[in-house]
Amino acid sequence: MKNALIIALAGFALTTSASVFATGDAAKGKALTASCVACHGADGNSVNPIWPKIAGQSEEYITKQLNDFRSGARVEGTMTAMAKAIASDDDIPHIAAYFASQKQKTGVGDEKLVRAGGDLYKGGRSSSKVTACAACHGVTGKGIAKAKFPRIAGQHNKYIVSQLKAFKAGKRANDPGKMMQDIASNMTDADMEAVAEFITGLRD
User: Fold this and answer.
1) 35, 47, 148, 168 from 162: Cα distances, Å
2) pTM exceeds 0.70 for this model
3) Domain 2-8+106-200 top-level CATH class
4) Which of 83, 92, 123, 203 is 20 to 30 Å from the Cα of 30, by its Cα?
């Protein structure tokens, strides 16, 4: 109940402030992505499963994460350095717009784990206070752009697991109201593996 209330309030607050979000220019953004492509690929579809796919991710979410890396709200050695190397805050919406305009390549989940992962994703587990992923990320994993809840459908399974573990350990703490930290803290490693396999095969 506590997690559900926090999610609802955070979503409302972020949605009501969405009108001030500055939309970027994808064409300008493409010219600013030279340092991004080494890890994320020219079209935002990374080939290394420990680096996230950012193709098709919302502008709002990409912008938030880049700003968080620049401010120190989110810390990761490589990305912190890369984000801080962006010449101007004004460039960030353009970079975000470019990757948001790209088409994501989806993955295929391990059939042995997909069913259990799908049950957790769609329905959560009240006995261990794990909120359903679909509550924020949607049934198809598209997320809620205006609330800055990310698209996770088709994301690399290894990246999903690494972020869930980072939230659980408190190494990642830029989630509104500690929503993801609270949820991940109640997930086992097996839960994370299963839900990641379901997510990587999701298609909207």
Assistant:
1) 23, 16, 20, 10
2) yes
3) mainly alpha
4) 203
